[in-house]
Design a protein that fits this description.
Length: 157
Amino acid sequence: MTTHPSIDQHPDLAEMRTRFERATTTPRAQAIETLALLTGIFLAASPWIVGFSGLQALAVCNLITGVAYALCMGGFGSAYERTHAMAWSAIAIGAWTIISPWVVAGDVSTTRTVVTNVIVGAVALLLGLAMAGMDSRGAAGSRARVSRGAGESETLR
């Protein structure tokens, strides 16, 4: 039985890091991260861009959730292996953005707020789902070689 001095040397850990690195270096992953950052920035600034900054409760809510979303989705390119689980919190932020005009204190469900939050929330939710599924789609779509003994191998999809 082979023992390793630390978990950092474990072959499964090294393979997982390589797989996560491959997942984040694709143009698709980089596009998702860029769009997510832009979505978070727009969500934070939307009360002043769209013109509902007078509704202070929703303006503050959008500012906080936009910054939180940008921070959640911003770390994927550099440290996906440590931050990929945060995509689920980004999904929750997207869902919150959709329902927030009806949940935030006060009557803030105007046409501007509802349309803006539903569209931005849906985009945020979809980008979070795309990032959460990035590794599983990358691994399922790639080919792997499995050794079957005495020089035989089989290609799996």
